[in-house]
């Protein structure tokens, strides 16, 4: 009986020691990360890059499940592939979500660091594409968003708050009729 109790006690302390060691490792990594990416350090790095003509880059991706059930990979940032090689551009491509509900389409774009009067949104003539562009002293954004259906440009309303742009548009009520083709 005593051996069983001793075994459980040692086992409990063994796991407690491992948990404590893991917590210490995580705390050390967080401390090093904070020191490395401190905002003042990042500003110094950006200034150093500018001296040498190096542009800072932003790159990311997200994976979502499309309406057909297949995964979709969407990239964002200012890194583009030109002839298979990565190139850093001045314009960043913001992360964008498109929501369709009833007779309305909502586009939400993350555009941090710009003033709202520096943001320009346009709807193409065919009503199927929303163009978002923003330019401030430090940042430039550009994105062409394909809309799931045609919209009425006069119904569009945009709100910018806390770095997030939300554009709501009403779908057009036009019904497209098919065109009959005679067979010869």
TrEMBL record:
Domain annotation SHSP: ranges: 86-184
Entry-linked InterPro entries: A-crystallin/Hsp20_dom (IPR002068), CS_dom (IPR007052), HSP20-like_chaperone (IPR008978), HSP21-like (IPR044587)
Keywords: Stress response
Pfam families attached to this UniProt entry: HSP20 (PF00011)
Gene3D superfamilies: 2.60.40.790
GO terms of biological process kind: response to heat
Residues in CS domain copies: 91-184
Similarity annotation: Belongs to the small heat shock protein (HSP20) family.
PANTHER family: 26.5 KDA HEAT SHOCK PROTEIN, MITOCHONDRIAL, HEAT SHOCK PROTEIN 21, CHLOROPLASTIC
Cross-referenced NCBIfam families: Hsp20
Name of protein: Heat shock protein Hsp20
Originating organism: Thermosphaera aggregans (strain DSM 11486 / M11TL)
